Amino acid sequence: MPDHAGARDDKHGEAMEEGIVGDALAAGLDASAVEALTEMAALHKRDYELDRWLVNGRSRAPVAIVLETDHRTLSTRRLLLKVPITDDTTTRLTATEYARHRDAYAEAPDFAKEHLTKLEGDPIRLGKGRFMTLQEIAGDDIESVEVLTVLLNSMLGIPAGDTTEIPCTSTDFAEICGAVVSGVLQPWNGRPRKARQAFTVAEFLGLHIQDQLEPGGRLHALSMEHRTDRIEIAGERRPLVNPFALARGALFGDRRIVRGLVGRTHGDLHTDNVLVRVDPAIDAEKFHLIDLALYEPDGPVTRDPAHLLLYVLARRMDTLSAPQREALLDYVIAPDEAHAGRLPGWLVEVITSMDRAFLGWLEGSGLQPEWRRERLLSLAGCAMLFLGRKSTDRADHPWFLRLAARAADRFVGMPGLPAPDPESAPPVAVTPPAWRTLPEPLPVAWIPDLVRPRTAARTAVELHLIPHPPVERLAVTRWEALKEGLVAAGREARLFTEDEEVRQEGPAAAVGSSGAGLAVTRSGQRSAWTALPHDDSGAILDRADLAIRLRRLLDALLRVPAPAPEGFGIALGVETGGLVVSEGPAHAVPHETVRSRSSAGPLRLPADGVLARHELVRRGSAVADELVERLLFTFRQGRVER
Fold it and tell me: Which is more confident, 279 or 598?
């Protein structure tokens, strides 16, 4: 007999698939996310409808509140849907957001039940290292909780826009901040504990800024402008310790002098990631932490409070006068020493409440000296983070730079630390970058193949990253859309100055008035070049100068918004423009230095080796230094002595 029931089920299934992901939801997701969500939902006989998008203006990752209807249980519930924006082939699966969130929930279930959102079901795979997740609504009733940022604005009398105004006093807001800090310390961690092994200063700061000092990192270009151990900043009476140098290992080198108070940490604690119960009334103890993508079981516990405080300041620095900002520098560094008279009362309440929570947690441990030192390092590390974020108002950058330098300077002078050694060399990488040799060099497009020769610098060092394995050719529309991204990447890396005129040549090439340039080919090759220093005799190859230039070129190339392959072949060259090229110090007095010279044609090192993308990102400075040595060796081998 025919299976009429089965036929009915098939028709029902077809009807479901047509509307399984609502049009409004599908419109905000990429094709792979829609396909994966549709397949998963079809298997479980569910459909998903958009309730609202959640946007905080700082993350491009789609986050939505959705209504899930289960046709097997005949039930509907409201959930949070989160979709990572890009694949991440460099992240171990155990370090994905889903894995970190799951671990956070499993390692402290009592705290998690009260203060963390719960994952629903298994992650939905979208690509390598990319998983879409569904989570319960924090606090269950979405209308009974509010984002802490909204309460901050309400407390300051800033209009709420389309959202309902929620009365919040300065005392309310300070109590919430104190309750959050106290909550992530006591119930989440228990008693204070130190790391099994002490950290170097560079390692501890690295837990805050990660790889941001490397080429491609947000802080690389700025750190290249400040390379000495001390830094002079407008508004400061004397040179201060350079926080970028300290993060690279200056002054203390490989000495393990930071004991390290560690524990469970959120990793990105800020007012957009804290939801607070507001109905029927504000309840500081009823808070939920969302977005656990950076959760760590053994992170520095001084980092979360420092980041939360600086985030509040970054969001509302516009409410402070110039004298208040000046007074705030002293008060943030040492609230027990500075005079708070000129500061707004709400800020004093917030800082006092957060520090009181930390000191209450430390009571009976005797670890207050460690907290004081590591608090300063966390302030320096987080201040550097805010310097690298596009969301930080550029007008506030000098303030955050001064805070980072003051915190670093104060740390260096703390009692109980060994005397800093200006001769301490930064830690040397234990292993060199892991190059993989190719049987045949990859094809390379050099400067004359990319732009008109007369628009580029006549003598230049050029760097090219060629995708390996090859990537799919860019669609013409996407290729042409890269132009604006190239200019932005060049300015962020200081390849182009802020006021330099930059011309867009061809579909995806940008050339500055200085002759520096950036380009992307349809095959995915990324290219960058910049003029060499020169004197009356011609262009000059100076080891130190080349290292700076290559790091800047690599920085610009890693910022280019083009598809990211698994690895890159790297080609390097010198365009001589027919002029004499010599090796020696770039800033020597003319006629006082004898240099070896060559007038040969362009010098080119083929792309005969490949580096994994994650190696290039994490070891960019070491890669640039190695390329300098290769270039100089090749130059010496082929030059003509004069």
Answer: 279
